[in-house]
């Protein structure tokens, strides 16, 4: 029995509870990750942000984190454990931690919480998000220019507003260049399963797509695209290493600046619950270098990026109809953030049925 | 290459690790030991296979490393449950947790590296058979091994004396012991065979399926393998069929989505599991056959009286 306990204890330590050596004066800024900090995608991007934060404040803070926390009831325990261990601020970095975060926050009114990509907040729960759809619009433009067949494959995770918004933005961008552009969507119903993501990529390529984009977290689809000789877009982190001749660009999440800003607010005592939604212009996301494409496509992408940064171009600018044919945005109208954050419909031109 | 062929190729890749891992567990369980650590052994095999391949440049060394690592790791389970008579369920779960943690630690320097893919071995003449040739005879070594192991295990369990002894131990370790059969020694070997197979399945993940290392890359396949053993009512051929059925339904649901046939994706994602449950119900309607095939001492500790 002793052996088992030992085994469990070792593994618990290895799994990644960076138990802090409790220096009294260091403020604890804590992180909850849904995946492993080396997943090459979503969670890695958050961890790079955490490292930037640690480097910025040095000894003044500690940044313990919990990895591989499943979304659901377990998340509540993990978040509560962090709150109990004396964290001043807890970042919960996945959509599925939303309800758990709000629930734990009610029990610990003195601890501050920040939930990524969600829409529920409270007096001590702020939300923060990145306008990924800006990047997806640019990817759509590139896809329409680069695809010979006019069909792209889209590996989606779960039908939440975040992902639906991404598909709409990608399709809208592509169809602004080629109105007949089609997108085939596969819902993998997972964020992280290299095997399944690779299977989905193979299925899409076997059905004739020649551009691949993904809203799941591993580099497996990029690898399949490289093997089959088509082009693809990376997700959350720069995935150029998985496909040096394959990646066109990637949406790179750069959370560090935000984490530094919010931690500073906690240290100064000026932290307020806010709902922050930053974009390309704020540097919370950046585009990986535009590679493996001709100069004119690169120029088009760079121009679109510059226009989005300056506010001249909003990816969701009318006229846009919904998939069912009803009007959504009139000519020249721009979508409000509320509609985007709760997006549960496809726009016209998406050739897929949205799972309910 | 036609679409059917493409689908079947993907199915083979997806089913092979399931078949391998569950085949090993089948032998372990036939000897009366329940090892819930398949996921942990698999992921350990995956990381060691990847590391050894990177170090030597040869995926064949990687395969050997995966097998050896799985077997050694299962030895830990064997020592705890067979020698120290610890609870098998708890120890198996601990093995999974330990494996996931340790593999993450070992694998940290390998994250993001592009792997070396195990190349297919083309079997002359047979590979030229239309349709079947490219599917079955232009595959990698691990696929050939998986089929050979199913045939071999089936022969061993039901045609050889040693297999008969192993099944006897699984059915009643007390009686087997009284007959002078080495219960503990046989169980050690069965556990190690299970570990070796899980390690090989892991090597398939990091060398063939997705030639890269990412933490937790087995993503629950060890648990599916465990379920498959019950699904197959502890019989190797049924297990092969079950693994491929599961793989086929998983892959076709992806294709169905890409075709846009308009069935909710959540339903399609659940389909492989639903199909497995339905078949399980159908084949287990005969209670007697099920009872005959279930190892009666499964999960029960054995302490020889001296």
Task: Characterise this structure.
The complex is a heterodimer of chains A (about 350) and B (about 300). By secondary structure, chain A is of the alpha/beta class. Chain A has 2 domains: about 1-130, Response regulator (Rossmann fold); about 130-250 and about 285-340, Response regulator (Rossmann fold, 3-Layer(aba) Sandwich), CATH 3.40.50.2300. Chain A contains 11 helices and 15 strands. In chain A, the strands form 3 sheets. In chain A, strands 1, 2, 3, 4, 5, 6 and 12 form a 7-stranded parallel β-sheet that branches. Chain A has a 6-stranded mixed β-sheet with strand order 8-7-9-10-11-13, with helices on both faces. Chain A has a two-stranded antiparallel sheet with strand order 14-15. In chain A, helix 2 (about 40-55) crosses helix 9 (about 255-270) and helix 7 (about 195-205) runs parallel beside helix 8 (about 220-230). The termini of chain A are far apart. In chain A, about 50% of the residues are buried. Chain B has one domain (about 5-295): ABC transporter involved in vitamin B12 uptake, BtuC, CATH 1.10.3470. The longest helix of chain B has 28 residues, at about 5-30. Helices cover about 70% and strands about 0% of the residues of chain B. Chain B has a two-stranded antiparallel ribbon with strand order 1-2. In chain B, helix 1 packs antiparallel against helix 11 (about 235-260). The interface between A and B is large, with 52 and 53 residues.
